[in-house]
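Problem 12. The chain below contains 373 residues. Write out its predicted structure in token notation.
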Amino acid sequence: MNGAPASDLVPVPCILMRGGTSRGPFFLESDLPADVAARDRVLLAAMGSPDHRQIDGLGGAHPLTSKVGIVRKSATPGVDLDFLFAQLQPDAESVDVTPNCGNMLAAVLPFALERGLLAPADGATTARILTLNTGMQCDVTVPTPGRRLQYGGTARIDGVPGTAAPVTIAFLDTAGSVCPALLPSGRVKDTIALGGADPLTIEATLIDNGMPMVLVRACDLGASGYESVADLDANVALRARVEALRLACGPLMGLGDVTSKSYPKMCLVAAPAAGGSLATRCFIPHVCHEAIGVLAAVTVATAAVLDGSVCAGLAQVPDGRRKTVSVEHPTGELSVELELDEHDPQVVARAALLRTARPIMRGEVLVRAEQGE
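Solution.
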């Protein structure tokens, strides 16, 4: 920029990216303040939080469109890119960098190539990405014919209109991403007693294979597991029970008091209704997800293949050490490829899936000068 600033607004370069079924601005780490508090002020201002409409920012008035990606070249041996995911909320002044987001992860490599952090290979480009939130690593591959990013293609994912080029993600070490272990309570199924005016005893599977999750049979909460998102969001009594269960499970998962945290995510499971492996309705954590998060789907698929989980008797999964688990959700399905350990079928050795991503807008987001300090 030449000359004096034209206003008291500070420009911050970013690219608005869609990753899977999520969306948000991506920033180079070097374009944001190094101080965490100052960085968070910029992110809140950029998204327009706290405000339920996010009318003064880029946010889309929903948790799925209140997400941010921060990327840098990695100094870790064998790793190409570092990714920090930030979950914001429309009506809260919070920036949560504790959990992962597999959907936003799908946009990291395209963003890095757009910004010149890496040079594209001829045909396809693969990068190893370290998610700083939890230390998880994965290999991501995008098509780059003629050393040029390709966004058009025939890959289709439910929850996103049209088709696009595939983004393949192979997860390397997702077990116990936030919790102490894959099964943080040490059990594949727990019995949780809920007190209050309407006491209830619930069987749940507490699991973290990329995302801390509490799985419970929908019928045990008086639901079918096939309700619409709108119906579940309108069911105040059900949501209160789900939240009570979440608060009770937090300490059992080694997460402590989760009142103000965006995890664990809650998932109602039921027998498949559309030819998949398992039907799901996920809460993230206070509203119902219109689809399912990528790492939530990996975690649910893992629970579906574990003997003795709450999915037993409901899930329909193929035989064999390598299997595809189709996780049904309100707007379709998400298929997860699992490979079980050859010595222990209760251990998932590898998980992979397909997403799509693309840039929506390149430019600068403007924040007030005092917010960028």
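Discussion. The radius of gyration is 20 Å. Students who got a different answer should revisit the alignment rule from Section 12.3.
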